[in-house]
C-alpha cells in the first residue's frame, strides 16, 4: 500500500512520488509544447495556441501536475469498458489543454465537418459523429492518414481494442510492452486525433496502463528522436518500450 498524492490509499507497488517524477520526465522528453513551443509547421490548418514561450511552458507544467493526479486516481482495471476508457482520455485532453486553446477558433471547420458527417452517414448507413476535441485538418505524417470526419469511428474501434488488451494483459495474455506500444502508436503515431496534446495524452495513457499490474515497470522515455523513430511500426515500438523499462516493480 502507498499513499497517493492527495493522502488516500490505493494498492500499487509504485510510490506516487516516483510515478509523478517519471511522468514529468517523460512529458519533458517528448513534448515540444512542454518546452514552450507551439509548433504548427507539420499540420496545415492547425492554428497556434493562445500562449507561447515561458507562459506556455508554465501552463503546461501546471496542467501536467493535474494530469498526473487524474491518471493516478483512476488506474485501469478489467472492470472498465470502452466507454470508461473514452471518458478518461477525454478528461485527460481537457486537463492537458487548460488555458492553451481558443475553443471558438475552429468553429467554422467543425460545422463543415458535421455536414460532411451527416452526408457520409446517409451514404454508408454508418453514423459519423464529430468530436470538438479532435483535429479538423488532414495529417500527412501517418501511414493511415485518417480523415477528420472518420476520427470518431476509428476512436470507437481504438477504445474497444484497448479495453480488450487491458483484459488480456490482466490475464497475462499480452505483455506490458505490447499494451503500451499499441496505445502510443495509435494515439500519437497513426490516428493523431486530438486538436492538440497528442504526445502528452499518449504519455498519460502509457503511464496509466503501467498501473494495471503490481509487477509492471515504469517506462522512462529516450530522446524525442529515438521515441518517434519506431512509432509507426508496432513491433519496433514494442521493442522500444521494452528498452524503456528501467524500474521493474517486484
Main traits of this protein?
single chain, 250 residues, mainly alpha, Fic-like fold, two-stranded antiparallel sheet, globular
Write the layout of secondary structure elements.
Layout lengths: L1 E2 L5 E2 L5 H15 L22 H21 L8 H15 L10 H18 L26 H20 L5 H15 L7 H12 L8 E2 L4 H6 L4 H11 E3 L3
Antiparallel strand pairs: 1-2, 3-4
Helix pairs in contact: 1-2, 1-7, 2-3, 2-7, 3-5, 3-7, 5-6, 6-7, 6-9
Describe this structure in words.
The protein is mainly alpha-helical and 250 residues long. The protein has a single domain, classed as Fic-like fold (Orthogonal Bundle). It has helices at residues 16-30, 53-73, 82-96, 107-124, 151-170, 176-190, 198-209, 224-229, 234-244; strands at residues 2-3, 9-10, 218-219, 245-247. The strands form 2 sheets. A two-stranded antiparallel ribbon has the order 1-2. Strands 3-4 form a two-stranded antiparallel sheet. Strand 1 and strand 2 (9-10) form a beta hairpin. The model is unreliable at 1-11 (pLDDT under 50).
Number of domains: 1
Shape: globular
Distance between the termini: 14 Å
CATH architecture term: Orthogonal Bundle
Largest sheet: 2 strands, antiparallel
| Strand line-up in the sheet with most strands | 1-2
Q: What is the CATH class designation?
A: Mainly Alpha
Ranges with pLDDT <50 over ≥5 residues?
A: 1-11
Oligomer: single chain
Radius of gyration: 18 Å
- Tally of contiguous helical segments: 9
Count all strands and give the number: 4
User: Percent of residues in helical segments?
Assistant: 40-55%
Strand content: under 5%
On the 0 to 100 scale, the average pLDDT is 91
- CATH topology assignment: Fic-like fold
